[in-house]
Amino acid sequence: MSTTRPLLVFLTSAILCFAADPAWKSKPVPDWTIEDAKQVLTDSPWAASVTPTLTKAVNRQRGRGLNAGGISIGLPGIGMGGGRGRGGYPGGQPPPPPQEDSPQADAPVLHLRWESALPIRDGELKAREVNAPDVDENSYAIAVYGVPTRYLSGDPKHLASQLKGLAAIRRDGQKDLKPTSVEILERDDGPVVIYSFSRKTEIRRADRRVEFSAEIGRLQFTHAFYTEDMTWQGKLEL
Questions:
Q1: What pLDDT is attached to residue 157?
Q2: Is residue 180 within 8 Å of 199, Cβ to Cβ?
Q3: How confident is the model at residue 57 (pLDDT cuts 50, 70, 90)?
Q4: pLDDT of residue 5
Q5: What is the DSSP string of 139-168?
Q6: Which of 22, 36, 51, 82 sits CB 3.0–4.6 Å from 32 for a disulfide?
Q7: Please, which residues have CB within 8 angstroms of residue 32's CB and are 6 or more apart in sequence?
Q8: Which long-range contacts (CB under 8 A, 24 or more apart) does 235-238 make?
Q9: Is 54 helix (H, G, I), strand (E, B) or coil?
Q10: Distance, CA of 153 to CA of 208 (rounded, Å)
């Protein structure tokens, strides 16, 4: 019994460790199934789902003097003076602003891909994603899928310029990497936002934790990628 029990424990641990590895990890790319490819694209060291923080909407009417001079806007029968207190409001106080969406309201789930990484490119090819974004070989590229179109309204070039200033790749003890460009790709299944970062600043395996953060409208999110896990066929793939 004293010999059998440790052996069973060892075998059980070995089986569990083996089972924890996804199937695609032990296969050459030509042997990947479509299911393998989809897992690489959705749940792998290069891909993840994140739920952003939904920040509070800004009331664009505040601070613009709409009630200046005691004149109320959109409130019939309430004007200057009239014994209603300051600004013509009962009790001298304006009514509360309209109820805004709460930061705790439901936020969309976003899907991130390290788009320039070879396993992602292979996975898209295997999954027959013919509309996969083009990637400059001189850039690291991170794509954000699943952004509702209401957060990307307006002129695409102006919006891309705004998003560029609200994103970064962070590494411990090093200067943040800022995007060299941002592209909003319109697709039938929804827009894709692609952030490109120059490879002139090399991300190394020794960096260990690589954190991508961005803001898209009211959506704020951060996700950490780990270089130790992003090694593919003996090479760091970014």
A1: 87
A2: no
A3: low
A4: 55
A5: EEEEEEE---GGGG-S-HHHHHHHHHTTEE
A6: 36
A7: 24, 40, 122, 123, 126
A8: 236/203, 236/204, 236/205, 237/46, 237/117, 237/118, 237/119, 238/114, 238/116, 238/117, 238/140, 238/203
A9: strand
A10: 36
